[in-house]
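thought: fold this chain, then report.
action: predict
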Amino acid sequence: MSLIQAIIIAIIEGLTEFLPVSSTGHMILATSLMEIGEDEFVKTFEIAIQIGAILSVLTIYYKRFLVSYDIYLKLFVAFLPTGIVGILAYKTIKTYLFNPLSVSLMLIFGGIALILLDKWSEKKSSKYLQVEHISYKDAFKIGFIQCISMVPGVSRAAATIFGGVAVGFDRKQAAEFSFLLAIPTMFAATGYDLLKSNIEFNQEQMIALGVGLIVAFISALIAVKLFIAFLTKHGFKHFGYYRIALGIAFLLIAHFMGLNMNLS
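observation:
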């Protein structure tokens, strides 16, 4: 993987991590189109740069963690289902579903779900005054729904936003809780994968990783701020249209270019 390719992947990670469009799916499609081999460094790079995206959320929402200690416990409760299911099923999911065909199909199905969610949430008001006021029961429900996002192409953000609206949040609060829940979820997933990796980085790889972290941080910072403004004004439907168009486009591109779409 060249430095230019590393920057492109980091931009994709930062821009899509907190949007309901599946960052993992986008990176799988991008590496496939750029014909980047899935060696140990590439796999580690795609995981490690998520730390840059996480830090962007901490930068924007750090005050949330200073207002009340309850938010720590509620996020932990919301993280539990994903943590348990991840330990039990992540290896199997990664073996059989981390491929362009699965991603394309999940992008399309998830896009349809977002269009339906947009209509459902259009005039929905929140039963909570602030995100921090969510009950432990509702936090757990969102975490349970988040488990679906382990399938690449579903999108962690889409799953948790859907769960947030389902338990009583309005659109903005559902998105904000999704951002906050990303912190323990992504730290755990990233840490778990990095601990299993025994790769030793050379100088060129260290530079690519450092640049990737910075690029992912900056692009995620921009994406989060713009997403809230766009969501408040336009809702979810445009993300649904985008997902459907991207999924169909990649299926067509893969067919005509003869890309490998087989299951692992």
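thought: worth noting. The chain has a mean pLDDT of 89.
final: tokens above.
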